[in-house]
Design brief:
There is one protein chain. This protein has eleven helices and three strands; from the N terminus they run αββααααααααβαα. With 308 residues, the chain is mainly α. The chain has two domains: 9-53; 61-304, MetI-like fold. A hairpin with a 4-residue loop joins strand 1 and strand 2. It starts with 8 loop residues before the first helix and ends with a helix.
Length: 308
């Protein structure tokens, strides 16, 4: 080492100590993650093994609905309910989130952007339980019931989906706006110099240049919608269980909502003795779904990434 850049022994010791602390933190995080996944896998396998020994066997996983305290574990009810809520949430969040991102990145004046973006991010700080009660007090009676006469007047999957969509808007808007602003300003100038309008520059130059970040924002928002708990636990209405159905205009059950509903009374689970253990099976399925979404996001970002 050159004598002019040689560090002191004390500084080397402090750097080494900091390195070891960060290594321990990373290792601790990895160990905790492995333990959580291991617990889910072991207990989920235990649930399936015990369920196979019951009179109905694994056929309970395709019953008429999800009623764990009665020994009915139709996982299709939860998956379909989750997909319905997630689909409605994305229909709400994608156009509004991307529209807000495009406006802030390409059309808003710098002064307006400084005020609007923090206000948009404040929406992400609203407790989900508040939006859950907003969904059953305003969204369902004033929007869903007025638009669809055959909708339930108390709880619906559609109201839960709209509430989850409102929660997802800030995530999509923030990540997509960062991706759009990361596109070099020289591309905007070159497009304008060729006579393109601002809208043409936005949709033919900027958005294609930021497509990897936009895809990541959409999949991140979808993961957020799938994992939302309190809004669906309050607004979907199927607390004790739910019948299999494909309509979003009636109460229903999602994976996170089912875990919350059963977990609320986990120390006094009545009925079938496998009810509590079913939480681990649902949790493992939810983990697999979100893991696949994150993996897909990483693959798509890598494939469509533009390097400037």
């Amino acid at each position: 080492m050159h004598p002019m850049i040689r560090t002191s022994r004390r500084r080397r010791r402090s750097d080494g100590a900091a390195r070891r602390v960060f290594q321990l933190a990373a290792l601790f995080t990895f160990v905790i993650t492995v333990l959580i996944i291991g617990t889910l896998a072991v207990d989920a396998w235990g649930f399936l093994s015990k369920l196979a020994d019951t009179p109905d066997g694994l056929g309970s996983l395709t019953a008429i609905g999800w009623f764990p305290r009665r020994g009915l574990y139709d996982i299709g009810t939860l998956v379909v309910g989750t997909l319905i809520v997630t689909g409605i949430a994305m229909l709400v969040a994608v156009p509004l989130g991307l529209g807000a991102a495009i406006f802030l990145s390409e059309y808003a004046r710098p002064r307006l952007r400084r005020y609007v973006k923090p206000l948009l991010e404040i929406l992400a700080g609203i407790p989900s339980v508040v939006l859950g009660y907003f969904a059953i007090a305003v969204i369902n009676p004033d929007i869903v019931v007025n638009l669809f006469s055959n909708a339930s007047k108390a709880f619906t999957l559609m109201a839960a989906g709209i509430g989850v969509g409102i929660l997802t808007i800030p995530i999509i808007a923030s990540v997509a706006e960062d991706a759009l602003r990361a596109v070099p300003h020289a591309l905007r100038e070159a497009s304008s110099g060729l006579g393109a309008k601002r809208s043409q520059t936005t949709f033919r130059v900027i958005i294609p240049g930021a497509i990897s970040g936009i895809v990541a924002a959409l999949i991140l928002g979808m993961s957020r919608a799938i994992g939302e708990t309190m809004v669906v636990a309050i607004a979907a209405g199927a607390v004790g269980g739910g019948l299999f159905q494909l309509t979003p205009l009636q109460p229903g059950q999602t994976m996170t909502g089912a875990m919350a509903a059963l977990g609320f009374g986990s120390d006094q689970v009545a009925g079938d003795n496998l009810a509590f253990e079913s939480l681990y099976f649902v949790g493992l399925l939810l983990f697999v779904m979100t893991f696949l979404l994150n993996y897909l996001s990483d693959r798509l970002v890598t494939r469509f990434r533009e390097v400037y």
